[in-house]
Specification:
The chain has two domains: 2-257, no CATH class; 264-325 and 359-417, no CATH class. It contains 13 helices and 19 strands. The protein has a five-stranded mixed β-sheet, covered by helices on one side. It is an alpha/beta fold.
């Protein structure tokens, strides 16, 4: 297999607003550690893939579509062979629309698009032959933050290495499901959070000091053990992620067949749509939510009123629709499948992916966009932030109960085709 790699610094200037926390005081004050866009270009005799992974909270869908159009024009790569994914750090610039949780930054997005193009050009400019190794480690670090009857965690740490003939690594990726929120809402410094330190630690532990992507799995309900921790704790947790797979990667035999396949599917997910009367009633109930009011105060009130007014306006103008588009992006390398999804997916999803498949399947969250939380049916019955509140910050209707299960069925169909 041929591999091209590159890494571009995408750290914003201090003073930008940071995305992910409504409780945070804005703007940012400085930089704890840099943010990067890391590109992998993979090619075999039949298939090509350009994958760029960034230290960001996520990608607004138009960013993805604009970059894919450019990649098509520049390299002849169709949309189904171009993936953008994000670590979901809550200490990066605002590249998704979350009301009152950091203002979307068009100037930074313009800068980001240029960086993505530079990363792609550099990765395609020089390729080398590599062999592929794949391992699975274990790490019981992430906790189910919901603490409900349906609590679930996923200890898998997936890792794929791209190794040269001399034994050094050109690139590697590790996928572990855990929200990068360890620095917490009190933090006002730009940072890649735990994924940044995990990438540094894994690169140092592998021969060749490779480019390392730390991707996020199905982590919508999973957090680190504590938030608002000092940077030294971020370094320690990042090292734990790296140590879960580094020894395994160094000892792994190459995959006997490392054929590359890529397959995508877009699925309409139904929404819990409301008419104007129901929107008003929901908003009034939301404004009585004492827990949310205590946590976010006037910001929460503004979020609810913005949600109410914008959805009523869309309804009256006939612009609303009853679904959101979920994109599944499957990358198969030998007996490993990395499945990208443009959502915050609950951790049980990865267990569902494994059922009925002989391959090792892992989720890549926050890939090609972010349509918000996709909880399980059990979580809908239990309630909580991800079910009852999060869609207000995203500014739309929440997915219907069962949407995650629909996505799981579509994923199973896609995997069978692989």
């Amino acid at each position: 297999m041929k591999l091209g790699t590159s890494q571009i610094d995408i750290t914003p200037e201090p003073g930008v607003e940071l995305s992910g926390f409504a409780a945070r005081i804005q703007p940012s004050l400085g930089v704890l550690d840099p943010l990067f866009a890391k590109a992998l270009y993979l090619a075999d005799a039949q298939t090509r893939l350009l994958w760029i992974h960034c230290d960001l909270v996520g990608f607004d869908r138009p960013i993805v579509l604009a970059f894919r159009r450019w990649a098509q024009d520049q390299f002849g790569l169709p949309a189904g062979q171009v993936m953008l994914s994000a670590t979901h750090t809550h200490s990066g610039a605002c590249t998704i629309h979350l009301h009152e949780a950091g203002q979307y930054d068009p100037a930074y997005v313009d800068f980001l698009q240029q960086c993505l193009r530079e990363a792609a050009q550099a990765a395609l400019a020089r390729t080398e032959e590599v062999e592929v190794v794949a391992v699975e480690g274990r790490l019981r670090l992430a906790l189910d933050r919901r603490k409900t009857a349906s609590s679930h965690t996923d200890p898998r740490v997936a890792a794929v290495g791209f190794r040269r003939g001399d034994g050094t690594f050109a690139a590697a990726l590790a996928d572990y499901p855990m929200h990068p929120v360890a620095l917490g809402s009190a933090n006002r410094q730009i940072s890649a959070d735990i994924p940044g330190q995990a990438a540094l630690a894994l690169a140092r532990q592998l021969p060749g000091n490779p480019i390392v992507l730390i991707t996020n799995g199905a982590c919508a309900n999973l957090n680190p053990p504590v938030e608002n921790v000092p940077f030294a704790q971020i370094e320690a947790w990042g090292k734990q992620v790296a140590e879960a797979v580094a020894p395994l990667l160094k000892q792994a035999a190459p995959l006997p067949t490392a054929k590359l396949r890529v397959l995508t599917r877009v699925l309409p997910l139904p929404l819990d749509t409301l008419d104007a009367t129901e929107i008003n009633a929901f908003a009034e109930r939301a404004l009585q939510d004492q827990k949310s009011l205590a946590e976010w105060g006037d910001k929460y009130r503004r979020v609810v009123e913005h949600w109410r007014s914008s959805l009523i306006a869309e309804s009256r103008a006939g612009r609303g629709n009853g679904h959101r588009e979920a994109e599944l992006f499957a990358v198969c390398i030998g007996d490993v499948i990395l499945l990208g999804a443009n959502a915050e997916v609950f951790s049980e999803f990865t267990d569902w992916l494994r059922r009925g498949s002989e391959k090792k399947v892992y989720l890549i969250g926050y890939a090609n966009g972010d349509l918000g939380y996709l909880p399980t049916r059990a979580a809908y019955a239990e309630g909580g932030y991800e079910v009852e509140v999060a869609h207000l910050f995203y500014g739309g209707f929440r997915p219907k109960a069962g949407a995650l299960e629909l996505l799981a069925q579509a994923s199973a169909d896609l995997l069978r085709n692989l």
